[in-house]
Design a protein that fits this description.
With about 800 residues, the chain is α/β, with parallel strands linked by helices. It is built from 22 helices and 32 strands. Helix 17 links the parallel strand 25 and strand 26. The protein is globular, with a radius of gyration of 29 Å. The chain binds adenosine-5'-diphosphate (ADP) and zinc ion.
Length: about 800
């Protein structure tokens, strides 16, 4: 028997190992195994088993051990990751690394043992102390002990040198961070088998999201599923689960009437209004049916979407199923997390990106064991090992942070669509400002549309004023270098005098985005990136927002030698300074990545604002995220078009969303709210529509632009990026690639052209953008491009990256 094993290494392939006779019984698909890789060992996941080896060149080594008991990764999750790897064109190893906890929950203990003769003088001096220490310990020394005594810096390199010289041997021992031997529920109590065979990628079976299946049938498709039930959520299972719980939420017996919703559960929140009731009714019916049902819940800011989610979750729990709530940036919304915690205490697991591996593991097991019933988390929670997933909520579905940019690019909302469909779960995409992609799916009849058009507290949407910064009368009130116009100052004064609170939003941190010479015009740029360094007065330095390069502030121009440096433009730090100076005696605070990065700092600021000890809060888009401040009556948007200037076809959409979301913080409770939008471009359709609370007029205009320019949701995109630290090598590669692409007809290909951010962290970057109407030809075009590019990269330091459905075009 042979095992195809996925290893957490950035390689496209699965690795073939022989399963020794003694391990045959224990080795099942989804199990964790210890396998030899070169001279070392690694923990991997068995993807599939076969009688003949899939890989036939060279020697096949036996795997070393099966870890734990039973599958670690069920078939459903393996198929999801397979789908991701194929659709996003990423190596399966990288996908496993991204989706699963580090080292698959094991950590490696290494012990180094001296093998050689006594230490002699011909060892490089840097190795001598290490060698001496090792030589004098008979039982060897562990990696930790060595790190404690010799420091971590350079340790690995020195150990490698000793290993290569054959002077030391290493013993590896992988220890679990989690309970071994715990039997996952799919083994101990198999769920009924699915009524229909599901698979993540049959041809022509399009998911409803951006993500469409790739046209090639994968190798591992259609393999008989012998290890576990591969699908939950079909009606049969739901009925079984419900009956077992002795509860009834759906079949009509013993129903209670509350809010007019059949089988309603006692509420712990406010009584729902009619709009919310209508939404919950639809969701309850879909949950009762137990099949995939996608919804777009479009609800204005403060319309009580969260209460609707709560009700849906409770119903899902009644059915004995699990619920997943995805939020864009969990660390930024402690208030929201607290609401969920208050509601679902004992059954809640919170997935945090900063969570240590062992904690992530405890949750992994609790979810797999079914003890954790509600999971709230940011995008990576979409990979949690649910066994009975019944409901997936994607809150603020339009939010760009659902797209992972680094490493393996994937879109968590789109993965949520795919996963819900495969397990037969109800999916709710919620937002006040839905993405054009999701609205297009409503139009195509793929999502059902739910709307909440009024605020739940009975408050009106805020009054929106645009302040034209070109207007001479407005300009008169702006002293040179100032950011707050007379009308905005006046409004701030009124609100704070009346004991109310103000939020000032500017989407740019730091003091000023550049420092340049007034004589020769030279700006101080980052040595690693093609951007100007941002002036940060408080840190007393010039900082690169891409690579964190920091250098001291200077008065002297490095180019012409004159004492003539001046800052240009402004950021939140400067806004805070001006606000403090303009409103003496008023308590002002700033919330951006610089002030809110320490642990607990963000919560402190939010709490201080909520309790009123801060009267004016200045901040970046961090302040726009779902917060609820009852006493906040005025939002000032200091320069609305900052987000319009990005080299990106979504910049208008993002601006509309940002303005609407930040405006939505005003007047959410009893006090009426108003919003002042300062801009040089008040007639811009995104700002006009936001000012009129008019999503549909924005969408209508934006759609026309997208259709004409050939962008999503009308076309699909793949961005291929190549980069290299050697500029000439990149230029040469670009020329060759351009020649090879000359005959390419089928897909529309833009580029190769230098990326807008040409140099990033020392790498020069070029883009090729592929556009197509259907995913099949788009993927095919990308594969051809990658094959051709791959041939050209030989012997160069060119790195190729693929981004399917790209969101970032820098
Ligand atoms: P959204 O998520 O749509 O922005 P929230 O769910 O945060 O809105 O609700 C906004 C506020 O309205 C919250 O303070 C919430 O407690 C309150 N709320 C929600 N539903 C109701 C209701 N039916 N009656 C009164 N208040 C409600
Ligand atoms: Zn930089």
């Amino acid at each position: 028997m042979f095992a195809q094993v996925a290893l957490p290494v950035p390689l496209r392939n699965l690795f073939t190992y022989e399963v020794p006779a003694t391990l045959k019984a224990a080795c099942q698909p989804g199990c964790l195994v210890l396998v030899p890789v070169g001279p070392a060992s690694r923990v991997g996941v068995v993807w599939e088993l076969s009688d003949t080896p899939v890989w036939q060149e060279g020697t096949i080594r036996p795997l070393l051990d099966v870890l734990g008991e039973g599958p670690f990764l069920n078939a459903e999750l393996r198929r999801l990751l397979d789908w991701l790897a194929r659709y996003y064109m990423q190596p399966i190893g990288s996908v496993v690394t991204t989706a699963l906890p580090g080292h698959l929950g094991f950590h490696r203990k290494r012990r180094f043992l001296w093998q050689g003769k006594p230490v002699t003088g011909d060892l490089p001096p840097a190795l001598l102390p290490l060698a001496t220490a090792l030589q004098t310990r008979k039982g060897g020394l562990t990696e930790e002990t060595l790190a404690r005594n010799f420091g971590r810096t350079g340790l690995q390199g020195r150990l490698r040198q000793l290993l290569e010289r054959g002077l030391v041997a290493v013993e590896e021992n992988w220890q679990p961070r989690h309970r071994t031997g715990a039997t996952p529920p799919e083994v101990s109590s198999p769920l009924p088998s699915p009524t229909t065979q599901t698979g993540y990628s049959p041809v022509n079976d399009a998911p409803d999201c951006q993500g469409q299946p790739v046209n090639d049938t994968p190798d591992c498709q259609g393999q008989p599923v012998n290890d576990a039930p591969d699908c939950q959520g079909q009606p049969d299972m739901v009925r079984v689960a419900t009956a077992q719980n002795g509860q009834d939420g759906m079949n009509g017996q013993g129903r209670t009437e509350q809010n007019g919703i059949p089988g309603s559960i006692p509420e712990r929140g406010p009584p729902l209004n009619a709009g919310q009731v209508a939404c919950v009714q639809e969701l309850a019916a879909a949950l009762a049916a137990g099949i995939y049902a996608p919804f777009l819940l479009e609800g204005v800011t403060g319309s009580g979407k969260t209460e609707v989610y709560f009700q849906a979750v409770e119903r899902c729990l009644q059915q004995g199923r699990q619920a997943l709530l995805l939020v864009p940036e969990i660390a930024l919304t402690p208030q929201l997390v607290a609401r969920y915690r208050a509601r679902f205490q004992h059954t809640l697991a919170i997935f945090h990106s900063g969570m240590p591996d062992n904690k992530r593991f405890a949750y992994w097991q609790a979810i797999q064991g079914g003890e954790a019933r509600v999971v709230i988390g940011a995008r990576s929670a979409i990979f949690a090992p649910f066994v009975r997933l019944g409901l997936v909520v994607v809150d603020e579905e339009h939010d760009g942070s659902y797209k992972q940019e680094e490493g393996v690019p994937y879109h968590a909302r789109d993965m949520a669509v795919v996963r819900s469909r495969e397990v037969g779960a109800v999916l709710v995409l919620g937002s006040a400002t839905p993405s054009l992609e999701s609205l297009a799916n409503v139009e195509r009849g793929r999502y059902r549309h739910l709307t909440l058009s009024e605020r739940a507290t009975g408050a009106a949407l805020p009054h929106m004023h645009r302040v034209d910064l070109k207007d001479p009368q407005v300009r008169e009130t702006l002293a040179s270098g100032q950011l707050l116009s007379g009308v905005l100052r006046q409004a701030i004064t009124e609100e704070v005098t009346n004991g109310r609170q103000v939020l000032l939003f500017l989407n740019r941190r730091g003091y000023a985005p550049s420092l340049l010479c007034r004589r020769c015009g030279a700006a101080i740029t980052c040595p690693n990136c093609s951007v100007a360094l941002t002036l940060h007065k408080q840190r007393g330095g010039l900082l690169c927002h891409y690579c964190d390069h920091l250098r001291p502030i200077t008065d002297i121009c490095g180019v012409c030698g004159q004492m003539s440096m001046a800052h240009l433009g402004f950021g939140t730090e400067q806004l805070e300074e001006e606000t403090r100076n303009s409103f003496p005696g008023i308590r002002v605070a700033r919330m951006d990545r610089d002030t809110a990065s320490g642990s607990g700092r963000l919560e402190e600021i939010l709490e201080a604002f909520r309790t009123g000890s801060i009267q004016i809060l200045v901040g970046t888009q961090m302040v726009a995220k779902g917060h609820h401040f009852p006493n906040l009556s005025l939002v000032g948007i200091v320069l609305a078009e900052t987000s319009l200037w990005q080299p990106d076809f979504r910049s208008a959409e993002r601006t509309f969303q940002l303005v609407t979301q930040v405006a939505g913080r005003a007047g959410r409770d009893r006090i009426p709210g108003r919003v002042m939008i300062q801009t040089y471009d008040p007639a811009h359709y995104a700002l006009q529509a936001a000012a009129n609370h008019d999503l549909s007029s924005f969408v209508a205009t934006e759609k026309e632009f997208r259709r004409e320019a050939g962008y999503p949701p009308f076309r699909r995109l793949i961005l291929v990026r190549f980069s290299t630290p050697v500029q000439e090598e990149g230029e040469r590669f670009r020329r060759h690639l351009k020649e090879t692409l000359a005959g390419e007809q089928e897909a529309r290909i833009l580029g190769p052209a230098p990326a807008p951010l040409f140099k990033l962290r020392g790498w020069f970057r070029w883009h090729v953008l592929l556009k197509e109407t259907d995913t099949g030809s788009l993927h095919a075009a990308a594969r051809r491009l990658l094959t051709q590019a791959g041939k050209l990269t030989g012997g160069t330091r060119i790195r190729l990256e693929v981004d399917v459905d790209p969101y970032s075009f820098f």
